[in-house]
Design goal:
The chain has 400 residues and is an alpha/beta fold. The protein has 20 helices and nine strands. The longest helix has 44 residues, at 159-202. The chain is globular.
Length: 400
């Protein structure tokens, strides 16, 4: 059986899909697995957000469609790259990328983009494939005044305006809180990505797909990928296949992008239990419930300085997941015990370490309450109008 190393599977951690999947959950009226997160996210949005969002995504199903806008940008991209890619791409490419998710026919998409046929004319064609999908998008039966028809008409007639509105809605969503959510989720998603990468070394693509419950089937014997609907995809046609840990893809969406050379790039976002958006909400609530006296007891400068060292940050990352002894830390990080002792002392002095006797040793744990209260403590101390300013620089401390 061929190992997955013989097939171009890569792993990436990126918000390029989750930001759109989160917006789908946010705008859907149906119950979702992230309803606690949804309640908080809705409360922090500006009043005009819903009106602006519905101009480009009149139905929730439009959000995973709009994730296809940057399909020509490969692999792992940061949110800022998502925005810049949308701003910089030619408008006809933006049109084709989005429309190809509704009309799964290149000739149909070309006719709409070049304006050879109007949207009304195209949808009036009884032979147009994908009638059921068109119904899901609110385009059949056709109603010129419907929100769905208006959104697609805006994309076709005023693509620059559509692009600007899409970028503005995404930026507002990011800035009003999803940036914090993603930052809180990213560490767990990266840990999950490492676990997936380790599995890849041991399993064939078919076994890996079953282990991760991927939305497509890898048939190693036939050397093809079989989706639930549509034609199989031969292994030899795949340029790259990205597996992406996801916090919001409960619907098991995936994407297939064709290149001009008739090859394909696959994206398989996989929802994991490594860290739920609901946990972020619960931790935020606990942090807000901490009394001001607890927050003020934290020296934000000391905590930031302690975590600013890469080795100490690695130690904190380990201790956040598993209580560990200093000896085990030295073995895991391949550094000397005196070095570990030095770094643990710095973390302990900043209030980041809790210690529990265990047999003949001591288990160290990262203090969740200190990390949770850090943001509030930093706000109080940085924006305080009283007290001395800590204006010593690193250069001054070294000279002294």
């Amino acid at each position: 059986m061929p190992r997955s190393g013989s097939f171009p599977i890569e792993f990436a951690v990126t918000p390029r899909f989750d930001v759109f999947y989160a917006l789908h959950s946010l705008t859907s009226s149906a119950p979702t697995p992230v309803d606690p997160w949804k309640s908080k996210a809705l409360a922090r949005l500006p009043r005009d957000f819903e009106r602006a969002a519905k101009r480009i995504a009149p139905l929730p199903i439009f959000w995973p469609l709009l994730a296809d806008a940057i399909q020509s940008v490969p692999g792992e991209v940061a949110f800022e790259e998502v925005l810049s890619s949308i701003h910089e791409m030619p408008v006809d490419e933006l049109q084709r990328n989005i429309l190809s998710g509704i009309f799964h026919d290149r000739n149909t998409v070309d006719s709409l983009v070049t304006r050879d046929k109007s949207l009304r004319q195209m949808l009036a064609d009884d032979k147009l494939p994908g009638a059921e999908l068109l119904g899901h998008f609110g385009l059949r039966p056709y109603n010129e005044s419907s929100r769905s028809a208006s959104a697609i008409s805006l994309l076709l007639s005023k693509p620059n305006s559509f692009r600007d509105e899409l970028a503005l809605v995404l930026q507002k969503f990011w800035q009003t809180g999803f940036r914090h959510d993603w930052s809180a989720l990213e560490t767990g998603l990266r840990a999950e990505s490492i676990r997936m990468r380790d599995l890849r070394e041991e399993r064939s693509p078919g076994d890996l797909g079953r282990e991760l419950n991927l939305p497509v089937v890898f048939d190693d014997e036939a050397r093809e990928i079989r989706p639930k609907t549509g034609s199989p995809i031969g292994y030899d046609r795949v340029d790259r296949c990205y597996v992406i840990p996801s916090a919001f893809n409960a619907r098991r969406w995936w994407a297939k992008y064709e290149t001009k050379a008739q090859r394909v790039t696959l994206y398989l976002p996989v929802t994991t239990e490594s860290r739920s958006p609901n946990m972020v909400v619960e931790e935020d609530r606990k942090a807000s419930d901490l009394p001001a006296t607890h927050r003020s007891a934290i020296n934000a400068e000391s905590v930031f300085r302690a975590l600013g060292d890469t080795t100490r940050y690695a130690i904190a990352s380990i201790l956040a997941r598993t209580p560990t002894t200093s000896a085990d830390l030295a073995r895991s990080l391949k550094v000397s015990k005196p070095t570990i002792t030095h770094h643990v002392h710095a973390l302990r002095s900043a209030g980041l370490i809790a210690e529990t006797p265990s047999g003949g040793s001591t288990k160290l744990t990262l203090r969740r309450d200190t990390v949770a209260a850090l943001s509030g403590a930093a706000v109080e101390q940085l924006f305080s109008s009283t007290g001395d300013l800590p204006l010593d620089t690193t250069r001054k401390r070294r000279k002294s």
